[in-house]
What we know:
The protein is of the alpha+beta class. Helix content is 30%, strand content 30%.
Amino acid sequence: MKIQYYDGSTKDINVLDKEVPYPDGRLIVSRTDTKGILTHCNPSFVSMSGYTKEELIGQNHYILRHPDMPAATFKDLWDTINKGQKWHGYVKNLRKDGAYYWVLATVIPNVRNNEIIGYTSVRRKPSRKKVNECIALYAKMLEKEQEDKLCPTC
Ligand SMILES: Cc1cc2nc3c(=O)[nH]c(=O)nc-3n(C[C@H](O)[C@H](O)[C@H](O)COP(=O)(O)O)c2cc1C
């Protein structure tokens, strides 16, 4: 299927109905510049994403965007971190092979001399109960976003 990102670019992606479980006791960490371009990722990030480190560094973080994620979740993320605040949320990420994995992410702005110079995201294993709640919630949000796109004035 084709996915369209916020900046207008599109990509053909392979989406499989296959979950890769979050590994126990691991933190998945990445850092980006102020535009969301990956500048650092730890070995757990690399192995869960299915890409090589070389394929990831310099790419937009939306490389992991799953089509089941509503746009409003990422708008909330960016609105929060651009204000210099911390954001927490459940995210379904797309792997290179088309499978997916759920994370509980905390994204924080990196501030130097009162200026945001980038962002760090640290992800933990999410509870299954919360993931199940998010599956239902995000499906409803996505449906509403698709209806609004088809008929913005309805
Ligand atoms: C530090 C940081 C970490 C992020 N982590 C993810 C992530 O794990 N998965 C994801 O889909 N988007 C993540 N994003 C959000 C993406 O930048 C992007 O907004 C999102 O994938 C949706 O793409 P779009 O805004 O082009 O529609 C992260 C952003 C930042 C700043």
